[in-house]
Amino acid sequence: MADRVEPDEDPDGARTARGDTVSRDVLLAEDGVDASLLDGLEHHGILRADADGRYEPEDVLVARTAASLARLGVEPRLLRSARASADREVGLLAQLVTPVARSRGPEAARRAEELSAELAALSGRLHALLVGSGLRHGLKR
To answer: 127: exposed, middle or buried (C-beta count within 10 Å: 0-12, 13-18, 19+)?
Structure first.
């Protein structure tokens, strides 16, 4: 059985560094990520390149994770619901972060970043727990 994967880790346990955007070639250099998979991820809105055709650093992990899921038979089109769910969560959590970010004071941006990171981690943990519980419950039937 595979080890549990934290939200900011790839299936192999490596972490990404935040920073500059990455090119399509960087994503294609990842194990299991070929042009067909990447095209599918883009077509179904899982990955979104910016106007310059570049991706966020986190997209490397998204592509790696999608490649691992593809090896298990999960096609990019089946990930649309995950993307839609994430987008809804972003909208909800942004309602908590935005007032902090807009507050006055020199620490507002730092506090908003910390709150964003904490909310994302907790949301990811909750999602993993709910999915795991749902799958276990489904297997007991």
So the answer is: middle
Return phi, psi of residue 132, to 5°.
-60, -45
Cβ-in-10-Å burial (0-12, 13-18, 19+) of 48 comes to: exposed
140: helix, coil or strand?
coil
Burial 4-14, CB ≥16 within 10 A → b, else e? ebeeebbbeee
Amino acid sitting at position 101: A
pTM to 2 decimal places: 0.76
Q: What is the mean pLDDT of residues 86-109?
A: 94
Per-residue pLDDT band for 37 (boundaries 50, 70, 90) equals very high
